[in-house]
Write a structure and sequence with these properties.
Layout lengths: L2 H4 L8 H4 L7 E3 L16 E7 L11 E7 L7 E6 L7 H39 L19 E5 L11 E9 L8 E8 L4 E8 L7 H59 L9 H4 L4 H7 L8 H6 L6 H30 L12 H21 L14 E7 L5 E5 L6 E4 L6 H14 L3 E8 L13 E4 L2 H25 L8 E7 L1 H13 L3 H17 L5 E7 L9 H5 L3 E4 L5 H8 L16 E5 L5 E5 L13
Parallel strand pairs: 1-4, 5-8, 11-15, 11-16, 12-13, 12-14, 14-15
Antiparallel strand pairs: 2-3, 3-4, 6-7, 7-8, 9-10, 9-18, 16-17, 17-18
Helix pairs in contact: 4-6, 4-8, 4-9, 11-13, 12-13
């Protein structure tokens, strides 16, 4: 894979790395000339430019970029078109990309703003011709009720409405407690919920918790300032729909009356139209929502209701009455539509104010309780029969990390003495013994002091090397039996209870294997090494999981093939960067340096590159008088 493939989509235009301009574009460093999205073939704006701007070719020559504003988006994108083929350093790619973003902002910022305003105006015009919904339009909320209001952080991730019936901008906060952010409050045409969305000013580094808190705080002034106007816009749209239905009923009634009058006159009997303008009127609430104080009653309609003489004259007058009544209703409806399109922009996502406030308070209470909980030792709750195993409590976010027994992978645990890794092992073993999804636990403790007190039908403790070899031979034989059973059943994975092999101080086991080789016990060493290798390579799909703990997983402490197949990594406090890399295989972008980690806390890698900080639990009755 080339550096261009690995760096595709490397930057989303974060303000901290390239300025805080609200129109900062997304940047893509793809293979030259290849656009990352097919939708770029249709765009509001397409321009090209070169880096560097002084047209002097640098060490890598002159690089050509294109700048594109996709349809209905508030933010453009840049993409490499030509040049820069010799650049293989990710750092250089990032630097050039950041400079190209700033060039695009300077060159095309004004044009981008104009293009955004143009499509918003087109959306407004298109909204005026939108077909009326066939379904029932809900009435607006009561006067004392707040409208429902959704909150959106990134407007580029949702579809924009074709037209809006209300829109306003405001800044939050206004008290100087932080740099203000601009928000957009709008009501899509015909919607029953309004939207508050971040327009610009976010840094790109806000966590999910911070986003929720900011949106929760910003929706309060939006509801306070615009509640009445939004309800009025909803009422106008509802009234327009109700008036359309009234016009249809009015037209049917008048047409039926015309047919009656024609039939009576043809039969030689006198007849005239009913006074439909006074007989049928819209509900007062509909007229009030449209701003109409009184339903009109022109004298022309009374005259049109009189039928004198020939059938033709009666029909003409009846048709005139229908046309006049429909024109009055149509003018009222047109007035509604005109007022419903007084603003230009749109937005998304709605939640009721009461629900949002309750949810916000709940999350604040949870966060405070979580922070208090992390100050001391967290005791593991002794619950029997649970299918999920608790690995601890998240430090940066509220909640515990629990994993079903069937999802646990081979696990590597590293940490200096006293960092908490052995207490963590006891926490896992304590839960395994109580889980119905665990069949047996094989505990290997060559120190002979950590696991001796486990007296349980599920637990088997081995403290000498020969016993360990025999136990692993039994596991390997079990693997062969299960493999044969799966072949007969034409299945790929074991679905029954799990067996866990837990090794404390794996380095001691490796040292015994090395001593056996040097001391003439080559057969014993080969048995142990082959058994461990076969368990870690094939056992997970057959229901056997290996968990190994050691101080530093160097090449002499654990076989590289075994370490490479450990899906879960738990990194407690370590003294050197090399030791950290040995556990996690990398040290980039860690939430905290493990060399400064508090006792009992560790970095958990779930095997997919997701690294989070966790505080381990302490099982009941475990003596901590000597420390972790």
């Amino acid at each position: 894979m080339s550096v261009f493939d690995t760096l595709r989509g490397w930057l989303a235009g974060t303000p901290t790395s390239a300025g805080e301009h609200p129109l900062l574009p997304h940047a893509y460093w793809s293979d030259a000339g290849k656009m990352p999205f097919t939708t770029w073939s249709k765009n509001e704006l397409y321009e090209t430019f070169h880096w560097p701007t002084n047209r002097r070719a640098g060490a890598w020559g002159n690089i050509e970029f294109c700048y594109v504003l996709p349809p209905l988006k508030h933010r453009g994108s840049i993409c490499r078109l030509d040049g820069g083929a010799d650049i293989t350093s990710p750092a250089q790619v990032r630097r050039i990309g950041r400079e190209a973003q700033q060039i695009a902002v300077r060159k095309f910022g004004d044009a981008t703003h104009r293009a955004i305003m143009q499509w918003q105006r087109r959306a407004l015009e298109a909204g005026q011709a939108l077909p009326k919904d066939s379904h029932e339009t809900p009435p607006p909320p009561a006067f004392d009720d707040f409208v429902r209001m959704a909150c959106v952080w990134d407007q580029d991730t949702v579809n924009q409405p074709e037209a809006v019936s209300f829109q306003a901008y405001f800044n939050w906060p206004e008290d100087g407690s932080r740099t203000p952010m601009q928000f957009r409050c709008y009501l899509p045409l015909g919607a029953s919920e309004a939207v508050v969305a971040v327009n610009h000013g976010n840094t790109g580094k806000e966590s999910e918790q911070e986003r929720i808190a900011i949106l929760s705080a910003a929706r309060v002034p939006a509801l306070t300032r615009y509640n009445i106007e939004i309800r009025a816009a909803m009422a106008r749209y509802w009234a327009a729909h109700e008036l359309d239905k009234f016009i249809a009923r009015f037209k049917r009634a008048v047409e039926a009356d015309v047919e009656r009058v024609v039939a009576e006159i043809r039969a030689g009997r006198p007849a005239k139209l009913n006074d439909w303008i006074n007989r049928m009127r819209p509900e007062p609430t509909i007229l009030a929502s449209l701003g109409i104080k009184q339903w009109p009653n022109p004298r022309a309609h009374e005259q049109a209701g009189e039928a004198h003489g020939a059938v033709r004259k009666a029909v003409e007058r009846a048709e005139h009455a229908v046309v006049s009544a429909h024109a009055i209703a149509r003018r009222a409806a047109d007035e509604v539509e005109r007022k419903a399109r007084q603003t230009e922009e749109d937005a998304r996502l709605a939640i009721q104010i009461a629900e949002m406030e309750t949810e916000s308070k709940r999350k604040q209470a949870d966060a405070a309780a979580h922070k208090e909980r992390l100050k001391g030792t967290i005791e593991l709750k002794p619950v029997d029969g649970l299918a999920d195993i608790s690995f601890g409590t998240f430090v940066e976010e509220v909640g515990d990390i629990t994993i079903p027994v069937a999802k646990i992978q081979h696990t590597l645990i590293g940490g200096v003495p006293g960092s908490g890794k052995t207490v963590f092992l006891h926490s896992l073993i304590f839960q395994f013994l109580r889980s119905p999804d665990v069949e047996q636990i094989i505990l290997i403790d060559l120190k002979g002091t950590e696991f001796v007190f486990y007296d349980h039908p599920k637990a088997r403790v081995y403290t000498d090397i020969n016993g360990v070899a025999d136990a692993l031979d039994v596991v390997v034989a079990l693997l062969e039996e299960r493999k044969a059973s799966l072949v007969r059943q034409k299945r790929r994975t074991w679905s029954g209870p799990r067996i866990f092999v837990v090794i404390d101080e794996h380095a001691m086991l490796n040292a015994h294997i090395a001593e056996a080789k040097a001391g003439g016990q080559k057969a014993l060493a080969v048995r142990l090494a082959n058994s461990l290798r076969q368990i870690v390579l094939t056992a997970r799909s057959l229901g056997v999981i290996l968990i190994s703990a050691l101080q530093k997983p160097t090449a002499d402490a654990i076989d590289s093939n075994i370490k490479a197949n450990m899906g879960f990594r738990c990194c407690f406090a370590l003294k050197t960067r090399q030791a950290i890399e040995a556990v996690l295989d990398y040290t980039e972008e860690l939430p905290i340096d493990p060399r400064r980690m508090r006792v009992g806390r560790f970095l958990f890698d779930d095997g997919r590159g997701n690294v989070r900080r966790v505080q381990a639990h302490v099982p009941p009755d475990l003596d901590l008088s000597g420390g972790w």
